[in-house]
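U., I forgot to send this yesterday:
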Amino acid sequence: MSKYYTVDELVEMINEPNRSACQKILGNFRNLFQNTVGSVHNHQSWPGGYWDHVQEIMNLAFVNFVTLNNLRPMPFSLSDALLVTFLHDIEKPWKYEQGPDGRLRHREKFQSKQDAHVYREKFMRLSSIVLTPEQANALQYVEGEFDDYSNRKRVMGPLAAFCHVCDVTSARIFFDYPLEKNDPWAGAKRFRD
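Result:
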């Protein structure tokens, strides 16, 4: 069974120059990341769930990459997959606010997937994240192709498809993992435990 890595250990596996940029992001926003929900309802929706989701998806990327790469050479690196999974929801700590009814809701500037993508791109520019075209494609389509789908051309590249699988696994299969106690994946635990 694969080790369950921490976010910091996984970020260490990202190649430079993005490793240092991601470490700086962690240094600047760690407390915020560790107190934000993963979503308003569908997955890791507890305080700290954002951090837990990022850690979960990065671990899934590690395990899936190693497994698939042992079957056939992957057309991208583990570093690429870890970078995209680390950044795939980077807007979420700024996305939510408490509504008048006391429930979490999306802030006005985050009403669409495109709003989130625009915020991610700006955040990455300001954080000195340098993306290859394949990494940029993966961040654009990590949550699916939506209206860009075509049966005439491939929109989602291999890295995007791989990261999408990891995200869907975390958000739709393992939506309440890591468990609060006794998670079956040895070493997996919620940040707040």
